[in-house]
Write a structure and sequence with these properties.
mainly alpha; about 230 residues; globular
């Protein structure tokens, strides 16, 4: 650790924080538009890999790559929050600034400043002692973790809210079956708009009643076989 400069440690942990935020937000962006999700996954993977690379080497190529990539991401973020992205489902519509993307933008700005400064300076001479390096690593990791965790939680909660939005939306049922209205005890006839009523030719059990036009039988009262005296 004695040959690792303080600025490189700060840049490395800032890159890890930005990577965590981008990876946490990738699923939400992928659900909105697959290209945006792939972009976030790619940026997160690059920033995580660059953090490891910058701890191993402080060469100009590594620093220049980190500067260009993070500056490009910052520029994309500024456009999306001011003018709106030129392509995609929300083309031309500016997005709101959230805690997650604002934190990632700050981390990336730190990376750009450190990378630009390291490109213009001679190679770092390292620390006076290993203890100083360990203390700086601990302080940088604690600060980045304390800043990153709330941003990651915000990104994850935003992603979950989008994933459950379809389930929380009403499905067009108001608690009644089709053709029912509040207060109706019986189902309505959806074709005629009237409630079905028992037929006059049926009794309560549903069996057909004898027709009133049928001739009375011989056993009915008031009828016999005797002549009526006409």
């Amino acid at each position: 650790m004695a040959d690792v400069g303080a600025a490189r440690i700060v840049a490395a942990f800032a890159s890890l924080g930005a990577a965590a935020i981008h990876l946490a937000s990738a699923a939400d962006h992928y659900a909105e538009w697959w290209a945006a999700g792939v972009f976030f996954y790619a940026i997160g993977a690059f920033q995580a890999g660059w953090a490891v690379a910058v701890l191993r080497s402080s060469g100009r190529a590594v620093m220049l790559l980190g500067l260009l990539a993070n500056a490009g991401v910052i520029a994309t973020w500024v456009v999306s929050r001011t003018e709106g992205m030129p392509v995609g489902p929300g083309a031309g519509v500016p997005e709101g600034i959230t805690r997650a993307d604002a934190t990632a933008a700050v981390f990336q700005a730190v990376i750009c400043v450190v990378a630009l400064w390291r490109i213009r300076q001679r190679p770092a001479r390292g620390f006076a002692s290993s203890m100083r390096a360990v203390l700086l690593v601990g302080a940088a990791s604690a600060a980045v973790a304390a800043t990153t965790m709330p941003a990651v939680e915000t990104a994850m909660s935003h992603s979950h809210s989008h994933g459950t939005a379809d389930e929380s939306e009403p499905h067009g049922h108001d608690g009644d079956a089709p053709g029912h209205e509040d207060g109706d005890a019986e189902p309505r006839d959806t074709h005629s708009g009237t409630s079905p009523t028992p037929s006059a030719d049926t009794d309560e059990s549903g069996a057909p009643e004898p027709s009133k036009t049928e001739k009375p039988t011989a056993d009915e009262p008031g009828h016999d076989d005797e002549p009526h005296g006409h």
